[in-house]
Amino acid sequence: MSYRFTEDHEWVLVEGNIATIGISDYAQGQLGDVVYVELPSVGGDVSKGDELAVVESVKAASEVYSPVSGEVVEVNGELEGAPTLVNEDAMDTGWFAKIRIKDASEIEELMDETAYKSFVEGLDE
Amino acid sequence: MLNNVGRPTQPMETDDNMVTVETFTGNHGLALETPLIFEQGVPGRVGVDMEEPAPVKSRLGNLARKGEIGLPDLSEPQVLRHFVRLSRQNYAIDAGFYPLGSCTMKHNPRINEKVARFSGLGDLHPLQPASTVQGALELIDSLAHWLKTITGMPAVAMSPAAGAHGELCGVMAIRAAHEAKGETRLRILVPESAHGTNPATAALCGYKVDAVPARKDGRMDLEAFAAKLGPDVAGVMLTNPNTCGLFETEVKQIADMIHEVGGYFYCDGANLNAILGRVRPGDLGVDAMHINLHKTFSTPHGGGGPGAGPVVLSEALAPFAPLPYVVQGEAGFELLETRHGLAKDSFGRMKGFHGQMGMFIRALAYMQSHGADGLRQIAEDAVLNANYVRVGLNDMLNSPFDGICMHEALFDDSTLKGTGVTTLDIAKAMIDEGYHPMTMYFPLVVHGAMLIEPTESESRETLDQFIGAMRHLLERAKSGDVAYFQGAPHFAPRRRLDETGAARNPVLRYSPSTEEEKGTAAS
Amino acid sequence: MRYMPHTANERKEMLAKIGVGSVDDLFTDIPEEARLDGLLDLPLHQSEMAVEKNFRTLAAKNLSPGDVPSFLGAGAYQHHIPSVADHLIQRSEFLTSYTPYQPEISQGTLQALFEFQTQVALITGMEVANASMYDGATSCAEAVLMACRVTRRKKALLSGNLHPHYRDVTSTTLQYTEFETATLPARATDVEDFTSLIGPDIACVVVQNPDFFGRLQDFSALAEKCHEAGALLVVVVNEVISLGAVKSPGEMGADIVAGEGQSIGVPLSFGGPHVGLLATRQKFVRQMPGRLCGQTVDQNGKRGFVLTLSTREQHIRREKATSNICTNAGLCSLAFTIHMSLLGETGFTELAALNHSKAATLADRLEKIDGVEILNDSFFNEFTVKLPTEAATVVEKLAARRILGGVPVSRLIPEQPELANLLLVAATETCTETDMNAFAAALREVL
Known about the structure:
Chain A is of the alpha+beta class. Helix content of chain A is 25%, strand content 35%. The longest helix of chain A is centred in the C-terminal third of the chain and has 12 residues, at 113-124. The N and C termini of chain A lie far apart (31 Å). The chains are: A alpha+beta, B alpha/beta, C alpha/beta. Chains in contact: A-B, A-C, B-C.
């Protein structure tokens, strides 16, 4: 399975019916030093586009929106003590939450890695 | 989701060849350090003397405190020296120029401090019988008269404690007015460039904030505004002059348009200094506006407060003003402290007692010193000074909006592109030149914004030197001396601080164990 | 005009440099029909001497509590302010500095705030405190909003013996939010029982110690009940010197303490500016409103202080901020910190003992007057007196004799006529033997 991305710079990695969600390396670079991540409660339902988490740097707080609908089955507790993981390893150990997918077709609508790369290049111009 | 404002919040590794000379004490001549007060005490010392308590039978019930509190014991000279040393680590308007946009850092006359301390004013208890405080009530009434006359508004609520508190007062009055008509309106329009307090206040009044974009000329986009209007709109919150330092030229149309759909016009009065005696907000269709006495009327900022934020109100909103009201009765002035009579529709109470009397005294003394002629001169000189700075810098810095500005000159950071130097770096280098930095990265709608408000207090020589210093810094930035800027400030009591570390592991109070841990970690 | 430096000639030259002919050309963005041509209908400028005289005239129309026997309290207390405190807050570098957003040149304000936060946490028995709120009443409202956020519940239960201004400010502040308040009636003679009222919808219970009538109570059992039900306990303290003698809210299990710090270092000033205190547990810190100062290091590794956790605040979080508050009580919190530093452990506890002793002495004296009854079984420096007649009338008669003899309960709770004969009487360290004798004698006369 490969990464999929949103225009809001969230990534999704699907294994079976579980989607792991985080923010892209580009996003962490733009946010600067992450100092705190507010995570959702496990067991809660989210719809695509809902606020899933809030990621804070010193001077900014940015909402992370859920790219998929479903139930939150796990959150990355490591971030509580080590928010810096988001900066160091955004695409892997800096993940935010895992969601049991309700509607797999939502994944199809997201950008693949190539599309996201050119989307980001467009932003920098 | 990205909301990056581009400010590094941790010091960078710099190679700027600044040599620090170590001393035994850590002091450097007149730059004197002082440890935390908690690191200085010796149990048994005391900084106050008082009489022995007469022996009485305790009437504390069974609630007497057991165990120590943990406060340090010091003598009076130690405390005095500690705080004098601390004071010397602060910048202050008395010491130098504060070009802080939207904050109106002007001269703070000392006569205001003197009269605020008069016996019979500063020491009055708020719950004395009205017959014993006629002078105090007259003073509040008199200040109210000045504020109403300056703004051309029929009423004023005196109790709000600060600007944001005044906004809350105004927006609550708007909500109360709609509810009195049996209407529920849940949307409030706020320009993108607004102060953060505007949306925060609207949210506290149960309103959904709908942001209106700005036009290319820095004013609110009237077409976008019109498109958002509807019967569910409670009102608009607009700063005028706006946060870009520009007068909203179509303010009267905006007022007419909001009134047409049954909404009210809240004006954020943070920038009133620019228009004193030149135009009255009441003539522009404003329904409510807070007045920051600590900006326009020079009550001292005091390192962050206290402020005062009286709110002038239109006829439509006046009946809903918060308690208490000062009214003139048969036996003189009275305080109306409950919802009855004139105050029967009041939306409630915002603050303990009657308002920031200490600030009222200072503001009234300031107004009396200026008079009608001096107040108009304030606006004229404030706007003159801002434009003087604008033309002094506009060949080196880009103004995002063309033409004459009001009391603030606004620039973006396009001139710094490719230099590696940021707005923040310029600001920190200004500290080394002996200035307080200008407002940075606000308004958010301008990239790398630098907002400069010189106020009427500054002389031409000060402005000339400031313009010279800014030009020097910009040239230095363009010459490639990035390291110098990234290492700035070099000559302040502290170099750049690690704000990231402070937020990741918050240490919000002294405790002996934390200090020990840090000591161990350092060795 | 002494405050503005430009001469007419300089103005002309500066206008030329800007490239406009007259100052009017700088104001052309103002709609023409709204521009003012003449002066406002207000007096012209005045000399410093004239202004000073105006204020002397106003001051002379008031009766200063410092000049006469005074026993006023009810949320604002007359105390001696050491001259060092008033001198220091008038130093230019404290008085005329801005909010410390530029930490490199604001360490004085920041370190003092850090010391303030620590002092407030220590005396309230809590883990952390913020850098101050507007006053005790607004602090109480913010504490309730905070409790609603922490518990994700919507209803706050307010004691009837909470200062009525605190009650009213809280209900006013919450009236247009999704949250609500329920208030019990004031009870001057018996104890409130919240047990049956703390349901699963309650975010917090708000009590005051000493309460509005001056009584002291141990709220430890109430704290336990709150916690069992998933609610928070908010304890209000509006005579902060009581904490030098009385068990702290933290020891009782309070989750949030909302207080008024005026008694330490801040003049009465007819009710404002005062200084709001807000303290809580470390785990709730991200739900706290207001500025917070934190410790860190600078580029050279030197200890320094910064404003921190700002993402809670309006200038970053906008409509999602924990509060719309921006300004704090800055200089008043500094006065508090200086006075508290002068007192220290020794002075603070001595001052509390002295206040209690004065009040107990006065209570003994007043109790001996026929028809006068003290309602409190416990108190710190303020108690409730039951008079045989309406307290408001008595207070007026005492004022005519140049004695400020307490606050009639009816001024603050007019809606409960059964309390009309009750008078709140406070005695602090400023109150002398002569004052007490004069008060007792005058009270005998007017009753």
